[in-house]
Amino acid sequence: MNELTGPVQIIGTGLLGTSIGLALRAAGVPVWLSDANPEHLRTAVSLGAGEHPPSGGVPQLVVVAVPPLTIAEVVLDALETGAVVTDIGSVKALPLDQVSDQAPESALARYVGSHPMAGSERSGPLAASAALFEGRPWAVTPHVHADPAAVALVEALVRSCGATPVRLSPVEHDLAVARTSHLPHLLAVLAAAQLTDAVPEHLTLSGQGVRDVTRVAGGDPHLYGQIIRANRTTVGDLLRDVRRQLDELIHAVDEPSADTLVEILNRGVAGTQVIPGKHGGPSLETGAVYVLVPDHPGELARLFTDIGEIGVNVEDLHIDHDPARPAGLVELVVESGAAERLRAALGERGWTTHR
Ligand SMILES: NC(=O)c1ccc[n+]([C@@H]2O[C@H](COP(=O)([O-])OP(=O)(O)OC[C@H]3O[C@@H](n4cnc5c(N)ncnc54)[C@H](O)[C@@H]3O)[C@@H](O)[C@H]2O)c1
Ligand SMILES: O=C(O)C(=O)C[C@]1(C(=O)O)C=C[C@@H](O)C=C1
């Protein structure tokens, strides 16, 4: 039972459900798909994420990938098939409480919640990717009555999608994501919302910084409204703490001396340094190399061929458009020790670069 052989039935073929289907199909696991929205289902099937379920077929595992406040009712239905059931919603204690209230203990044992820490500000099947979970942590949150074989099967799902299972209780999970996901989302929303007061000419000065800080604020407000409401006590406590820190920050900005402000800025630096690196390892010290790329077909391909020949691994990438020239500014994030070598080698190959 611990080996994932399928079929896996995915209910909800939006961004997450379709991405899981694509990842499982790439791993050779049979996948059945369903969705309340026939257009999403048709798109997911045409992308190759799985097939329509045969009538009367019983899956080995059901993955519920619907919005948070709909999860419990879909899980309760799915448990009636006799299969192991997981959901991948962003909050874990609320759906478990709702399912526990209604499911008999024998069925509840087959339900093990989980949550991939990977996603995007986009929604729907067209935004899906088979590589979404590659190297990412994926929380697995068994309750005390969970069957160990069901937990092992959900962990096998996580590995089949290329992610790393991280086991913790539903309550602990919700405390963790309030700080690592829900609060950052709300702070990004505040930073993004104040841009709507800017005059358009001022927005031409939007660089990579504002894009980095606001990206997640583009997420579907209905989805994030449900996520935050489902974890509202913990998120509310964190927001009240931020309000206290905001008052402290306002005083520091008003003060003639920069000492308190620098002390607060240093707390930010410390926060960035405790985020683990790729695959849960220590965070990698990175540096950026900026390359001016002409706005012509094939230029990005030529740049990446050169980087491949120079032999430097690109950890991250951002593209900014130069408002004054037909060119893009590509920021290559690489291991800090390799940044100067990469900049010099690209310069030798004729690229305009800076650090
Ligand atoms: N977006 C992210 O970055 C992210 C990351 C991790 C987990 N999640 C969680 O994954 C779940 C899905 O999020 P998403 O981003 O894929 O959303 P999405 O809007 O892209 O997809 C949700 C899908 O569920 C379908 N649906 C809604 N109610 C249904 C029902 N009763 N039966 C069948 N289908 C139904 C919708 O038609 C839609 O296709 C949410 O619970 C979310 O908290 C999201
Ligand atoms: O947009 C992204 O990059 C995300 O990974 C989104 C993110 C996150 O905060 O990490 C957002 C909510 C989900 O529950 C999980 C992932």
From TrEMBL:
The UniProt entry, under Pfam families, shows:
PDH_C, PDH_N
One GO BP annotation is: tyrosine biosynthetic process
Extract the PROSITE patterns matched here.
ACT, PDH_ADH
Pathway the protein takes part in: Amino-acid biosynthesis; L-tyrosine biosynthesis; (4-hydroxyphenyl)pyruvate from prephenate (NAD(+) route): step 1/1
- Keyword Transmembrane included in the entry's annotation: no
Catalyzed reactions per annotation = prephenate + NAD(+) = 3-(4-hydroxyphenyl)pyruvate + CO2 + NADH
What keywords would UniProt list here?
Answer: Amino-acid biosynthesis, Aromatic amino acid biosynthesis, NAD, Oxidoreductase, Tyrosine biosynthesis
Q: Which SUPFAM superfamilies match?
A: 6-phosphogluconate dehydrogenase C-terminal domain-like, ACT-like, NAD(P)-binding Rossmann-fold domains
List the EC numbers from the record: 1.3.1.12
Q: Which residues form a coiled coil?
A: none
Respond yes or no to whether keyword Cell membrane is given for this record. no
Q: What is this protein called?
A: Prephenate dehydrogenase
Can you name the source organism?
A: Nocardioides pocheonensis
